């Protein structure tokens, strides 16, 4: 269990990146949703002990993270959004190097690396240079290095960004498989990934937490109130129009309303994307 209380972070240019964030995150796969610039990466870097919060408290399974960052690092796996690799090192050699830095010795190191190569489906590529890997293979390598040392907290920042559909599906299946008996915090702006993978979600915007909870429970208030239309009738408040998309070249609007906003409105099951846009709209109305 990870608990954050009154976490604040302001950068030198005056940007309030985190604004009094208070939340408790359970074990399992947890999603962190928000638009670009919402503060997701700042929160991730703070939890990964790469930067200090200006104020507040962080506790992980009874450990005071602010005062004992090294104790958390020994239980932490981190996959940043962008990471570099040594250009002349193979996959296995680079995992060996990182394992040594993590203090994993001897047979334990060898056994862990072999297991992680198998888990991430990289065994046959173990002697190839990571710099030449495809995007999906690099991300699987990133997961492997994050899992070295059997961490209890894994932080992943936009792990599926830039991947094609096949690579994304493969990585998502891998993420689900590693989330047993540990907390995997997945930061993304791809709502579909969170809905498919996570049982719990936190939504942040402009550095502030605006909603959090069990994914299924968050959708309950919207059930029966989401309507799909091909065109918008007049008189619908802007904040009730959750999204506009296109399917087969035709516009499709999703609208929040207690009753059908038009005769041709089709009632639709609520999705996490509906909740996401609804929460952002509510947040903008209260800011």
UniProtKB/TrEMBL annotation:
<dbReference type="InterPro" id="IPR017871">
    <property type="entry name" value="ABC_transporter-like_CS"/>
</dbReference>
<dbReference type="InterPro" id="IPR003593">
    <property type="entry name" value="AAA+_ATPase"/>
</dbReference>
<dbReference type="GO" id="GO:0005524">
    <property type="term" value="F:ATP binding"/>
</dbReference>
<dbReference type="InterPro" id="IPR003439">
    <property type="entry name" value="ABC_transporter-like_ATP-bd"/>
</dbReference>
<dbReference type="InterPro" id="IPR027417">
    <property type="entry name" value="P-loop_NTPase"/>
</dbReference>
<feature type="domain" description="ABC transporter">
    <location>
        <begin position="2"/>
        <end position="231"/>
    </location>
</feature>
<comment type="similarity">
    <text>Belongs to the ABC transporter superfamily.</text>
</comment>
<protein>
    <submittedName>
        <fullName>ABC transporter ATP-binding protein</fullName>
    </submittedName>
</protein>
<dbReference type="Pfam" id="PF00005">
    <property type="entry name" value="ABC_tran"/>
</dbReference>
<keyword id="KW-0547">Nucleotide-binding</keyword>
<keyword id="KW-0813">Transport</keyword>
<keyword id="KW-0067">ATP-binding</keyword>
